[in-house]
Amino acid sequence: MTSTRKAYFIGGGIGSLAGAAFLIRDGGIPGSQISILETGSLLGGSLDAAGDADHGYSMRGGRMLTTDNYECTWDLLKSIPSLTQPGCSVFDETLAFNEKHVSHALARLVDRRRAKVPVASMGFSMHDRAELLKLVNSDESSLGSSCITDHLSPAFFETPFWFMWVTTFAFQPWHSAVELRRYLHRFMLEFSRIETLAGVKRTVFNQYDSMVVPLQRWLQTQGVHIITDCTVTDLDHKTEGGMFEVIAMHFSLKGQPESMQMEDGDLVFVQNGSMTDSSSLGSMTLAPPKLTKAHNGSWTLWEKLAEGRPAFGNPAVFNSCVAQSDWASFTVTLKDSDFFDRMQRFSGNEAGTGGLVTFKDSNWLMSIVLAHQPHFANQPPGVQVFWGYGLFPDRIGNFVAKAMADCTGAELLQELCGHLRFDLETVATANCIPCRMPYITSMFMPRAPGDRPLPVPPGTKNFAFISQFVEIPLDTVFTVEFSVRAAQMAVYELLHITKAIPPVTPHDASLHAKFDALVKAMR
């Protein structure tokens, strides 16, 4: 018998898109009975990208991908047809692209003299090695809510390894030791190639155009209802037999308050929290405005639901200290090839074959990356786009006497050209759009067991969380995979699907492989 139950996804990020796809593909729920409710005008959440050649392109960031990990993500994208290659899936298209454009960074770190820093050695002392091995081999229960600095000495944070690791994954020394330990296990293979980023895989265009748009188009062909400019403000619920059940939803649709009653069997999936909440954009002449969670409200629903319910987590752990979770990014649109030509001569990499170029002595710890062009689906010939970011937006620049967060696009270009020793004429045609993100690494904040809820908290009947702020044993936040896996877990549990979820690949399970990787890193 065809199911009549309906499913509602609150938030339009990649987790909701993936969850809707799993409901259709593996749960047998017709797309016409699935709705995605998104506050903004576009879906994709943090995997956003927009703009045009005349007004400038902008994207808040891009997530690292590998084909050695991301088990649930690739499993999903094998089911989604490519928009540009008939007969191919998004996975097939991505694999073929990376076979043609192989990553091998030749200028991973650059010092204050504009010299490429030798990175074949990770720069560890015997003391660093001992501390790192101790952290890797620790139980999470023994680490508690400790910070990385509680386990690693100051000298470790000056090693080439740290500069490469921190700018690849966006850690800060004050972040969660538990999360760093998970990363060291999950991405054990990266020890052997962190200096070249040879394991990184890229999409044909930016991740919005190459992952979000094909997935959204497929969902729409299945009849999924995508409702934008819709903010869910509250959920009515009841508890019977110890089971929490959502019975109604209150929301604002295009500014008008509305309500909806749930029917028996309906499901509600909530994206709790947002790492790009309260993001803001600037321009060549204006710095991004400084916003807080009060401006956007992405945390509000989770805060309401968690009040008095320990099983629903503790959002205050993640959103209470912007100074420890913010950084700034920028996207540069160019109308000529001068900057790209000079970067190729300097780095030795054609655009799309290198990785992050990090200025290790930058006060902002600035990095840039030049992707294969075009990087946007609507990017015309003759236009080039690159992206960069800084991990310390509160610090005064080396060449601009302002904090990065207070800089205009023109000032960011001045700072970048200073580090590269390029004349400003090199970026004469540039349109640089800065972006401030106060909660971008909030999921890395030190946490204790229970601060993150399970995707389906115990004692819930028709309700689940899917986001970067749920608990998934062994997996790592700040990845597309984490959101997709959370969605798959939630869908399978609520629908009682017995099909196995792809496991987290145990790259560190072999002691021989683990030893070889660590020895390579610790030379």
Summarize the structure in short.
The protein has 523 residues and is α/β, with parallel strands linked by helices. Helix content is 28%, strand content 16%.
Care to describe what's here?
This protein is an alpha/beta fold. It has helices at about 15-25, 70-75, 90-100, 125-135, 140-145, 160-170, 175-185, 205-220, 295, 300-305, 315-320, 340-345, 410-420, 480-495, 510-520, and strands spanning about 5-10, 35, 50, 55-60, 110, 225, 230-240, 245-255, 255-260, 265-270, 280, 325-335, 355-360, 365-370, 385-390, 430-435, 465. Strands 5-13-14-15-12-16-11 form a seven-stranded mixed β-sheet. The protein has a five-stranded parallel β-sheet with strand order 6-2-1-10-17, with helices on one face. Strands 7-8-9 form a three-stranded antiparallel β-sheet. Strand 1 (about 5-10), helix 1 (about 15-25) and strand 2 (about 35) form a beta-alpha-beta unit. Helix 1 runs parallel beside helix 8. It is globular, with a radius of gyration of 23 Å.
Classify the beta-strand content into a percent band: 15-25%
Tell me the total number of β-strands. 17
Shape: globular
- The portion of residues assigned to helices is 25-40%
Largest beta sheet, briefly?
A: 7 strands, mixed
Low-confidence stretches: none
Strand arrangement within the widest β-sheet reads 5-13-14-15-12-16-11
Radius of gyration: 23 Å
User: Separation of termini?
Assistant: 62 Å
* Structural class determined from secondary elements: alpha/beta
What's the tally of helices? 15
Q: Determine the mean pLDDT.
A: 94
